[in-house]
User: Which sequence fits this backbone?
């Protein structure tokens, strides 16, 4: 059994001489409850808690600095690899607009984010 998504159905219909818009195929498939197979695992990385307080925005979303090392911002993200998920934490100097510290970890723990910050403190 072949499982076609909207893209393959649209291309097949056009090959068979049935002119149809891709968005029409999507709409009809949705109406009929049809969907293509999804490859890979669905990973839920953020599990928000409605009653949990949000972190404070200490710069009021104004990412400007007059000199180097005046303002650093930090974040981390995840990357899918053949070996599994890797997490990357990085610190950006807002003035230079470049990454000044970073760390990679196989687990999403606080210490690897702090290691990225320590790298910046040592280097700067």
Assistant:
């Amino acid at each position: 059994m072949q499982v076609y998504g909207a893209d393959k159905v649209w291309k097949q219909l056009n090959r068979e001489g049935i002119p149809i818009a891709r968005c029409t195929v999507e709409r009809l498939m949705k109406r009929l409850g049809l969907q293509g197979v999804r490859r890979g695992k669905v990973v839920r990385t953020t599990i928000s808690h409605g009653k949990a307080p949000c972190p404070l925005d200490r710069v009021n979303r104004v990412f400007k600095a007059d000199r180097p090392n005046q303002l650093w911002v930090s974040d981390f993200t995840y990357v899918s690899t053949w070996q599994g998920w890797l997490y990357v934490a990085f610190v950006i100097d807002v003035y230079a607009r470049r990454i000044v510290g970073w760390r990679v970890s196989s687990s999403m723990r606080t210490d690897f984010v702090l290691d990225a910050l320590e790298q910046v403190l040592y280097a700067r």
The chain has a mean pLDDT of 88. Strands lie at 72-81, 84-93, 98-105.
